[in-house]
Amino acid sequence: MSGSTEKMELNINLTAAAEKRLQELVKRYPSAKSAVMPALSLAQEELGWVTDQAVAWVSNRLNLPRSHVREVATFYTMYYKKPVGKYHIQICRTLSCYLCGAQELSKYLRQRFRLTPGEISSDGMWSWEEVECLGSCGTAPMAEINDCYFEKLTSDALGQLLDRIEREQPDLRYSTIVGALGGGLKGHPKSEVWTRDEGL
Amino acid sequence: MSKQHKKILTNNIDFADQHQLAAYESRGGYQAARKALKMEPDAIIAEVKASGLRGRGGAGFPTGVKWGFVPKNTGKPIYLLNNADESEPGTFKDRVLMERDPHLCLEGMIIAAKALGAHWSAIYIRGEYAYPATRIQQAIDQCYAKGYLGKGIFGTDFQLDIVMHRGAGAYICGEETGLIESLEGKKGQPRIKPPFPAVFGLYGCPTVVNNTETLATLPWIIENGAAEYIKFGTEKSPGTKLTSASGHINKPGVYEIELGYPVMDFINNECGGIRGGRNLKGLIVGGSSVAVLRGDELPPLNMSYESMAEAGTALGSGGFMVMDDTVDMVEACLNLQHFYSHESCGQCTPCREGAHWVEKIVHRIHAGQGTAADLPLIEDVCTQIAGHTICPFGDALVVPVRSFIEKYGEEFQNRIDSAIVSQIGGVSVGNAR
Questions:
Q1: Which chain B residue has the Cα nearest residue A139?
Q2: B240-324 architecture in CATH?
Q3: Interchain proximity B87–A135, CB inside 8 Å
Q4: Per-residue confidence band for B6, with pLDDT thresholds at 50, 70 and 90
Q5: Which of the ends of chain A has fewer CB neighbours closer than 10 A, N or C?
Q6: For the domain B329-423, what is the CATH code?
Q7: DSSP 8-state assignment for residue B155
């Protein structure tokens, strides 16, 4: 490792829980290299986005060049290369959601936050973007907020949901999703899917 | 019994406790895996070959045949990968299986692993599917706790470890070699084939990548036998298929239908007909990468690989998207081409550049700034892309635009004609020189 890499390492300080978790993850794979993605996810959950420190941490723990870790981080859209709001809203824009009115959700967010996709609100709470198909087409239109799906939305329903999030400040991150129901907002994330025997 | 009332995969998914190991077992779960672990691997492969099961991820390749490509006694480990990267627009069937019946997914993996001699396996779940990922992880943990995974499964000497691996937002990782690259901790850019994964897959070892639904079908086949399975469906498309229906229908959702079921019956019965009693203008039957069908093409068609191939499209992933007569087909086409230009992995120039060009040209037609040369230009670009890329993404991206122009050409032409008229009249923004 070069001198500059060692300097970067000095700033690395993730929680003991994350360190332990990574050690467990590495053991599961045929090669430690496979743990790059889960390691990036862990770091992002702690730091909010993939900072230089996040890259240095993954690089150090998995003994891979920082350039490789950065290459992986920039390829996948779910690793944030710059900060996002505490609540990052993703509106699915692809065909089925488009057919069912996803544009109304985007329009609502534009009016509510006066933010362009990628910007963060001044209080650090919100950011939003349009994304490609999230696999929730039967419950279109929908949005994913942090790691939770919210389905069959209208602009009114989305507005009420955001009001509630503003009030309750729930934890909607992946690691808090446990059991049948999610952490944070009770009842979410829960996919509503109709099978033949259900219906209207 | 009519075709729509037979179930193989979804018998138990409406039970609220189905994701719990004890509940799963109380409904007969893991009996097929116990049986498979006592069978000779070749006998399992023979049974799956005889069942005619075809890959449910989209390509429809016979599963047993794919397994047969794995070389024996190479001295290398063999890996089984469950492809749950479900990202094809309109497709959400594997999500339902993972959320509602995660142990069924795992049981299928145990059976396949035994057949292939694999002792390490991963289920690669698209990153956005956080909830399905927790369900699968919970099921894996339950299995380890009870000795259903790890060493000495069900008291045999068979060992299998399963890892739940989350993706991070890249459509291309659903392509099997893209998935393998991603699982090696790299960008998910597909590999040149050959060598195929069966010979040179994960870390250079023989690897089989199967779709989640495909694997979840195995317990039924092992329990009931191939002879029973082929009683469902048609000769060339045996069995049932999960179809995820969305768009302008009254009852969107995931339905298990017997292959060969008439398309119009599916729309009118299960899907509850077209929303608001409107007319059906277009149908994408198997995810955005298959050709769109006009409403008037549908009556003779049924849900089978062969019927859809005859109609110039494909059963694909089961992403069934219905469009009524209010839809602007130029805009719908633009919506999909935006998807492809966003998701091109950037490895091959024809796809990386072409996907953007196609989107831009459709965009300008939609914006009323098209010219008479634009439709031939799109075709020219498509010709440069199709067949000239490492993976099928290039072919997939030209299918929607070509089929939308072929089926709804008058809508594209009208936009172009009115743009030309307004340009001659000097009122177009594009003419403001």
A1: B252
A2: Roll (3.10)
A3: yes
A4: low
A5: C
A6: 1.20.1440.230
A7: G
